[in-house]
Design goal:
By secondary structure, this protein is an all-alpha fold. It contains 15 helices and no strands. It is elongated, with a radius of gyration of 30 Å.
Length: 346
């Protein structure tokens, strides 16, 4: 333009095409993105497209009104083509961005319709906690407690159902484990932000207790995931591994049921998950002395047994932490203090 190779009118259409083309290029370069990632690409295209439509409408409207749009643009740039083009580009971005921001609800519906949320998006998005609740610590902590309950309800799905193990189930469990881990982290950070607001003693005790529960949930998630990986490595699951997996699944399901039950349900679960080290030691000795077809198989069974023992211990600790306080004026966090460092190092 500076060298007069192109006039402002020609440059106008060139920039419009380049602006919209950059949005399309974003979608093309997105490759295998899906869900929220691809939704952002479509929002980017909408910003570019709406900006082009608005600026083009203004340009054509000025021409139809008898004005010279190119001359008006030149005047805005003080006769400097470079400045005029810069202002045109700025108008494209601002007009599109402002309209899309104002129509946020419609934009979200369009982007979701074009790219529905993926399984990863769905399982990694908290259902209860929200920054808008920060103004009321009691409400915020109640939401965090509900989020914790939901995370507990997802724990059985981290284990294989060996009676009905379908193709792709292992991948789904990995996706669920990763998404649930993200929610645990987000919920824990949410509780920390509540504590930073200098809450009262009662809310502080509840917040600390929630952090304790979330830490245990995270440890148990990882242990169940690791146990599942070991079981999945068997080409044919040995009877011992099958029994351990089904027993652990039953125990975790009992934890979920107890959460919606009574204190007696927790007491039964705590008793069932009490120290079983003697039994597990006998299993280890039997494995060490047996003539298994493969030393690798024996190693996997020993590892599965250790994972099972750790998972049962964590279920018991979590059951103690989740058990509602009855007729006790002492804070639950003081009565049910859990050695989380031991859980992490065990």
């Amino acid at each position: 333009t500076k060298a007069r190779l192109l006039g402002l009118e020609d440059s106008f259409y060139l920039i419009l095409g380049a602006n919209f083309g950059s949005g399309i290029a974003t979608l093309v370069s997105a490759g295998g993105l899906a869900g929220i990632g691809k939704q952002l690409c479509f929002v980017h295209i909408l910003v570019k497209a709406v900006g082009c439509v608005i600026v083009f409408a203004v340009w054509q409207g000025a021409n139809l009104a008898g004005w010279d749009s190119a001359a008006l643009l030149s005047d805005l740039g003080g006769g400097e083509p470079t400045l005029s083009i810069s202002l045109l580009f700025l108008a494209l971005q601002l007009s599109g961005g402002l309209v899309i921001t104002g129509l946020r609800g419609l934009t979200e519906k369009i982007s979701v319709a074009l790219s529905p949320a993926s399984v990863e998006d769905q399982v990694s998005r908290p259902h209860f906690i929200h920054d808008a609740a920060m103004g009321d610590p009691s409400t915020a902590l109640d939401l965090a407690s509900r989020e914790t309950d939901r995370l507990v309800s997802l724990l059985p799905d981290l284990l294989p159902d060996l009676d009905q193990n379908s193709a792709g189930a292992a991948k789904q469990r990995t996706v669920l484990w990763h998404g649930s881990s993200l929610i645990v982290t987000a919920t824990s950070q949410f509780v920390v932000r509540v504590i930073e607001r200098r809450v009262g003693r009662e809310d502080l005790d509840l917040a600390l207790h929630l952090q304790e529960q979330l830490d245990l949930v995270k440890f148990l998630q990882d242990t169940l995931h690791d146990f599942s990986l070991v079981v999945e490595e068997f080409k044919e699951v040995p009877p011992l591994a099958f029994n351990l997996s089904e027993a652990l699944r039953t125990i975790v399901l009992s934890l979920v049921d107890a959460r919606s039950g009574t204190n007696e349900d927790f007491d039964i679960l705590i008793a069932l998950t009490s120290d079983r080290s003697d039994l597990l030691d006998r299993i280890r000795r039997a494995l060490a002395g047996s003539a298994l077809n493969s030393g690798e198989e024996a190693r996997k069974l020993l590892l599965a047994t250790s994972m099972f023992e750790r998972a049962v211990w964590l279920v018991r600790r979590l059951a103690v932490a989740l058990r509602p306080d009855a007729n006790d004026d002492k804070p639950a966090v003081a009565r049910n203090k859990v050695n989380l460092e031991e859980a992490h190092a065990d």
